[in-house]
Amino acid sequence: MSVIDILKSNAADYGIEISSDLEGKLEKYAELLKDWNEKINLTAILDDEGIAVKHFLDCLLVSKVADFKKGDRVIDVGTGAGFPGLVIAAAYPDVEVTLLDSTGKKLKAVENMAQEMGVKNAEVIHMRAEEAGKKPEFREKYDFATARAVAELRVLLEYTLPFVKVGGTFLSLKGASAVDEIDGAKNSLKTLGGKIEGINEFTLPGGDKRAIINVKKISHIPPKFPRVSAQIAKKPL
Fold first, then answer.
1. Is residue 17 part of a domain?
2. Angle, nearest 10°, between helix axes 20-37 and 104-117?
3. Is residue 36 a part of any domain in this protein?
4. Whose CB among 74, 84, 86, 155 lies 3.0–4.6 Å from 144's, allowing a Cys bridge?
5. Is 206 left (phi over 0), alpha (psi -120 to 50) or beta?
6. Could you give the angle at the alpha carbon of 150 between the alpha carbons of 98 and 169, nearest 5°?
7. CATH code: domain of residue 214
8. Per residue in 188-206, pLDDT tens?
9. Beta carbons of 151 and 213 less than 8 angstroms apart
10. 152 within domain boundaries
């Protein structure tokens, strides 16, 4: 079975429909991901089932949580190989997606893949999150922020919530540790104006646990945040 055949057969079990347009884009994505991985290290998961389930289906689970509307702005913080941001851009052509990462080589690959896939609603930004989060053109300008496997939640909130408008949402794509991380992020949430709206748990085909933590931005963030990365790492909120 091809990557797309595997994806479609499994996505149906989650109530996720793969349109013919998305099918073509993701088929190209899988091909390009393998090609680029020969030049730079994008992902350790390169078998067809792994790409279909642990990358594409995993990212598409956000559709079960988020109600993306035409014109919404989404920023994927620490996008890496484009997960989940490039998948979201492919699935929602009416949404504007910013793919942010501090690693230029990866962003070059992601930008190329987006072009080859025919994704026109994604832009790449080569910048550290804690720097971009203080710039007026990015700060509190997004309806949604996403991040997948970047850092523990209490740390991640400081990197992501500065981008989100008051009333907007941060979607944190996590594994089995999600509930424990929420317990450790209470002070960070309070300090940064976030509130847990819910946690949606999933089991991928094969048994891997996934969760999407839905964080609502309820108030503005004090100007001193985000701090520099050394401070964030040394003294998490």
1. no
2. 140
3. no
4. 74
5. left
6. 55
7. 3.40.50.150
8. 999 999 999 999 999 999 9
9. no
10. yes
